[in-house]
Structures are given as structure tokens and as C-alpha cells.
Amino acid sequence: MNTHNTNYKWKFSNPLKTNWFLKLPNEIIQLIFSQFFNRLELPNNTQFLRLLLTCQHWNSIATEMYTQFKLDRVKKLPKVGDFQYLKRYKRSLQSIQILGGQSLHMGYINIIVDIVQINQLTHLNLFSNKMNDYCIIRLIQSLQYQSSLRFLGLSDTGLTSHTGPYFSDLFKCNKSLREVVLSHNNLGEIGAVAMSKGLEMNDSLQILNLSYNDIGDIGAREIGRSLQLNKSIQELDLRSNCISPNGSSFLSEFIELNQSIHAIDLWGNSIGKDGASDIGKALASNSSIRSINLTRNSIQSAGIKFITAALVSKNCNLKSIDLSSNSLCSDGAKDLSEALFRNQSIQSITLSSNKIDHVGIKALCKALRHNQSVTYLNLAFNEISTLGSRYLRKLLKRNTSLRCLDLSSNQLGAESVPVIESIQLDQSPLESLILSHNSINITSIQSIYHHFNVTSQTTPIANLKQLRLEFLSPTNQDKEKAASLKLLNRIHNNLVIKLF
What we know:
Layout: H1 19-22, H2 26-37, H3 45-51, H4 58-61, E1 68-72, H5 80-83, E2 95-99, H6 106-116, E3 123-125, H7 133-143, E4 151-153, H8 164-173, E5 179-181, H9 188-199, E6 207-209, H10 216-227, E7 235-237, H11 245-257, E8 263-265, H12 272-285, E9 291-293, H13 300-311, E10 320-322, H14 329-342, E11 348-350, H15 358-368, E12 376-378, H16 386-398, E13 404-406, H17 416-421, E14 432-434, H18 442-458, E15 466-468, H19 476-484, E16 490-492, E17 495-498
Helix pairs in contact: 6-7, 7-8, 8-9, 9-10, 10-11, 11-12, 12-13, 13-14, 14-15, 15-16
């Protein structure tokens, strides 16, 4: 096919003109087509048309094989007249993804609706394509009794509070949807309240993302109430929704009573220490919760006590917790450390941007030398300096569980060298050590390379696969010196060392 010729007429023809190809068995041609068209991304209108101009076998074979359609951040959408040719494949299409930056008017929506109603489509994602209320309502209504769709993505599409009642009907009637993503819209309090009425009657939805919708405390209350006794919901994302301690109090009732929920994300709200108290009590009583994100919630050291109390509860089975950007300081780190002596379920802890200094690091390292469950620890963007490095060295010498340690953007500098040298390469389970943006100079990096060059000759590297030492703002002089010393990104016995 001539991929440079744009002077063509719309018709199903044979631009290949290769007789040997046309004589192949249909099964072989179908296999060739499947390798080329499966998951094909169509970057512009011209290639959209060329997709349909393959050969005379297209009508008999490809229409049964073309299952996935994707337009990713195209400069211009296909014209509606061209787009409608997608309907030829509505009995085979299983996934439609139109991602990024375009406005979809009713002409496009009607074509999508026509395809949806065949009950073959399982995945529909219209991320960041603005639509007016009429278009959205038309689409949502067409999905009420659709029986094949599993995923619906309408992030950043311009949803308003007016669409809330229609989502309520969708959740009430549709039994096939498993994941719905409605983030970065304007549902607001009114839209969330209206939507919640349908959620109360839904028994099939597993993942709901309402992040960045400004649902507020009242919206959080109604969403929480509607899901209290729901037996299907597993993940709820309410990031950045203006939820205060009052709203978190209502959510804690949902967390306490619901026995299907596994993960809840409250990133970027304002629950404070009072909200942390309510959430902590709920976590202590619900053994189904596995993951919670409380980043940027102004919990502070006064509120972390309630979370750590939950971690030592016999009913708590939490595996992952993110407490980033909560001003926990070293007092909060010490409270968490005490809980880690007793908790043996937590596997992932993120404490970035919490103003933790050597005092907090000392407590954490002491606890982690005894704790056998934590495999991921993120301490990026704290205040770990020379004093803190000595405790890290002791931890890494005796570490028996940590797989990934992130110490990026601290104040370790040249102290990064002894931290790295303390790793027992032939015994440590550590797979990834991140020391990026720690003011490590070329001389220190040269010492690190020398350490691995010498050590690896006598000691096998058991598990370490990644060592990241990126400069914060590398100068041309840094790069030239690194190159002259042959300190470029390289591999030592399957270990990747990254500098720039």
C-alpha cells in the first residue's frame, strides 16, 4: 500500500496489486491483518481512510477481525462522514478509545451509540473530549441496558451536575459495568447527590473514580451512604474533592460497614487530625481494606496517632498506605515506627515530603530492622542528611525484607557512598535504590562505580537491579566529566546505574 499517496477516492479497492497475496488462504490473510490492525493507533484522518483501503478481502475478513479502535491526541478528528464507517465493524469492535483534546458533537455520539447498542463493545474511553450535556445524556441513556460494556471512561469531558440523575439511572439499570472513571469534571455536590441514588441499587460496579469533582462534604456523605451495604464496590477514588473532617466522618461510616471495599483514595482533601481520628477507627474495624491514600490531608503529628492505632489493631489488614505531604515531622515518624514493631501486614509505606530528619529516620530504621513485612519505603523529599545516613547504613546491612527504598531529593550528598557500600550485595533482597537529586558529585559517583566494579568481581549481586543517582540540574561540565571518566548509564551484572 502506498502510504504517501493522498490523491485517492473513497472506495474499497486493491491498492496492493500483489496477486500472490490475494491468492493466499483466507486464514493466512486474516493472520496478517490481525498482526497489523490489532490495537492500531490512527494518528490522522488520512490514515483512518487508508485503514479501509487494504485489499479486496477487507469486506469478507477484516470486518470480523477489527476489534480495537484508538485515536490518541490527534490534531484533527476524522470527519463524521468518514467516522461513520466504523459502524461497518460494530459487530467485531470491542474497544473504542478517543483520547485527548477534541470536542465530540452529536454526530460522533450517534455513531458511538449505534455501535454500543450491538452489545459487543466492552471498553469505551472518551478521555478529555469535551461534550455538552445533550451529548453526554444521549450517550449515558444508550448504556442503561447495554449488556457487554465493562469499562466506561469519561474523564475531563465536561460533565456537570445536570448529568447526575442520568448516571443514577445508569447505575440503577446497567448490570455489566465494572469500572467507571468520571474524574476531572464538574459534577459538584448536586451531581454527586443525584448519582448516589442509583449507586444504592447497584450490585455490579467494582471501581468508581470521582476524583477532582468538588463533591464536598454533602456529596461525600451521600456517596458513602449509598455504598455502605454495597457488596460489589472494591475501589473508590475521591481525590481532591474538598472533603473536610465532616465529610470524612461520613466516609468513615462507609469504610467501617462495607465489607467489599479494598482501596480508597482521599488524596488532596482536608480531613485534618479530626478526620484522621474517624478514618483510623474505621480502619481498625474493617479487615477488607488493603490500601489507603491520605496524601495532602493536613493530618500532622497530632493526627497520625489515630492512624497508627489502627495499624496495631488485630482487624487491620492494610497492605499499602500513603501519608505524603502531611507535615508528620519526626514526631509522626516515631509514632509510625512504634506501630511497625507490632504490625506485620503493611508492605508499602510512602512518607515523602514530611519534614522527617535524622531523629525520625533513627526511629524508622530501628523498627524496620525488626519488621519483616515492609517491602517498599518512600522517604523522598525529606530532611535526611549526614546524621540520618548512619541509621540507613545499619538498616541496609541487616535488611531482610525491603525491595525498594526511595531516598531521592534529600541532603545526603557524599554520604550516599557509604549508604550504598553498606548493602550486602550477595544477600540483600533490595532490588531498587533511588538516591536521585541528593547533590551527589562526580567524585562520589566515581567511588560508587569503583565499589561495584571491584565488589562484583568477588561477590555476586543477588537482587539489586536499579541504582538511580540522577543529578538535580546536571551541567554540561558534569556530563562531559562523567563521559571522560566513562561514568555513563551502564549495567554491572544486570544492575542498571542511571545518572542522567
